[in-house]
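re the bet — no i am not wrong, look at it urself. input seq straight from the record:
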Amino acid sequence: MAAFISSQKTEYGIDHVISCRALGVSQSWFYKWKNRIGQDAPTTRERRRADLDAEITRSFEDSGGTYGSPRITRDLHEAGWRVSENTVAARMVELGAYGGAITERV
């Protein structure tokens, strides 16, 4: 969208302020993303999410697939992460990591 807003200035002479207002985005958003056009480098949020996903996966696999989001959240807090249980639960769903109890066979 930032590329589109920039193209309006060069192709039609429409100022970015008007384009932002018409599209319902803030000017600060446009300035934030204007310099990212054509870049493949991950944002800070994307890097943190990837690191968090790796920690969740490691903790889940270390537990043998039995820990759920409350227990993994506790483990992450002990490791120094500041993250909520809801975020961990959402990331676990995205990763397909479902905690469950081990049933004993009789």
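see?? The radius of gyration is 21 Å. told u. also The chain is about 65% helix and 0% strand. so pay up
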